[in-house]
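Limitations
The structure tokens in this dataset are predictions for the assembled complex, not deposited experimental models. Users should treat interface geometry with appropriate caution, especially where small molecules or nucleic acid strands are included. An illustrative entry is reproduced here so readers can see what is and is not provided.
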Amino acid sequence: MTKLTPVMVAVFSEPTDVLNAAEAAHKQGWRHLDIMTPYPIHGMEKALHLKMSWVPWVTLVMGLGGAALGFLFASWTSAVAWPINVGGKPLISWPAFIPVVFECGILIGGIATFIAVWRACHMPTNTPKIYDERFTDDKFGLIVPLREGMKDNDVQAFLKGVGADEVRRVDA
Amino acid sequence: MAVVAPRVKPVEDVLPPSDLISSKIRLRDVTDDVLRPTTRLPNALWWIGIAITGTMLGIGIITVVRLLIKGQGIFGISHPVGWAFDITNFVFWIGIGHAGTLISAILFLLRQYWRTAINRSAEAMTIFAVMTAGIFPLLHTGRQWMAFWLFPYPNERLLWVNFRSPLVWDVFAVSTYLTISLLFWYQGLVPDFATMRDRAKNLLRKKVYGILSLGWRGSARAWNHYEKAYLVFAGLSTPLVLSVHSIVSFDFAVSLLPGWHTTIFPPYFVAGAIFSGFAMVVTLTVVMRKMFHLEHLITIRHMELMNMIIMATGLMVGYAYITELFTAWYSENPYERYVFWNRATGHYAWAFWTMMSCNAIIPQIFWFKKARRSLVVMFIVSIFVNIGMWFERFNIIVTSLHNDFIPANWEIFTPTIWDFGWTIGAFGLFFTLFLIFVRVAPTIAMAEMKGVLPNPTGSGKPSLHEEVTAHD
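Predicted assembly:
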């Protein structure tokens, strides 16, 4: 990840420019790029060649798991732990369990999604690396990690060339 | 070496209609205008507001203290009307919450990007409304200190809750609804809290909002997960919100009482919930946008769209009333027929006609564009709708109970001063929480709002927002 490498931070004013810059930087063979933006820009996943988030899989598995758990629990309490025979009606009267099963699925699925999304974002963290405080306001940033063989001046000139307002080096 | 990059063609035809939001507003303006109320001392209107709602809350607290000391006898409930103001208030407040979820989840899935102006405050309203609602059944249990018996937990009596009971369904539905709404709302707030952290001038604000923002930086890699999770939450909340009021309606529909035992209840309750919830959003928004000078972000067009939903759901509710009456007549069931005849002409006829006129007739004024776009008209109508929806629940609960199958059982329900006490207290709690919320958190989802600006940087290039461009 970008954590331990020094990076070049380019500040842009236009969302379209930062996308173009990211595309161009990717074409240069630079990897582990990141964009900082106050709101999600359409197309940034493509520009950065990001894979689809795995978070929905957590929701699916945990949601179905939660529902299954809810059904097992309702059945166990009604048929095993405290069986009451009411006029010979079935002990596991599944249609009557549907509301609780449904709510259990949503509840467990939702809580799992909430945990998963912050895990995926490496959050919560007490010491976030904030490159520029305007990136949550009205500016867009392209973060280029400086790997071996990448010269500061070249990267700087390149980023200026694709429309950056400011470019500066930030050491980890 | 300077390399000239190939340019990605900007998306041209994705600008939202100009009457929703002015093309003069820039990204920075959104941050400034939305955060202004949180950094300045509140104005006089806010202090007057909180003084009134605080007093109302005080009345509620006094009532609850008295209830805990004296017991349920302080209320007008007795045999056969064992549910009255408490359950009326419960259903009313749960219903209020539904508009928030409709706006945040269903309108999101339907790509109605006008929701961005109002979704944050509507979601806050949902949470406060559900919290307010939850108090009523808890206090109504009588021995409130044993309220945890509602949850299935291993105990020395080896007893479990009855999973076949609608009242247990309610416990699961309402607590799930509160939890998921809270998580969904908080997720939406995280990027905005980060903005507040980055703009904070003093150390304490920086620390507090730093913790609340969980260390959000606006990284595209994080947005990638964030947006999927947001979509997932919208997908989970949509069936959830439909289930919650359906399950609340099962509290009635699963019983055998005439006037309650009908299959129309779930859709009828859901439509009514959205109807009353939108009315509450309009009531709050009319005041909030004035109080904090947000008229350019929450425009008349936004209000008009909400009024259209009020009118549409009002028609659905009116249709449900007429269907109920028709079914009562057509069923040839004397008990069912009697209940509806009694509702319209009996002791509580005034409540029935209040409901009918406030819900089915008054909102029809929104057929006129002038009325839809008039702040005074929409404010008055939204209050009427909420009065009407409160009486709808009162009407369903009390009129069905007070004259049931055996005339020897019949009784008139008369509320006591304490019934009014906690009803007023509930409004006090809800509005107080809302007034505190508007001071400490952004009332408009800034990150989303920034994305739908027609001209975010002043250069004429589009904002490239996910929701706007999703159809291309």
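Some entries come with short summary sentences. For this one: Confidence is low (pLDDT under 50) at residues 1-16, 467-472 of chain B.
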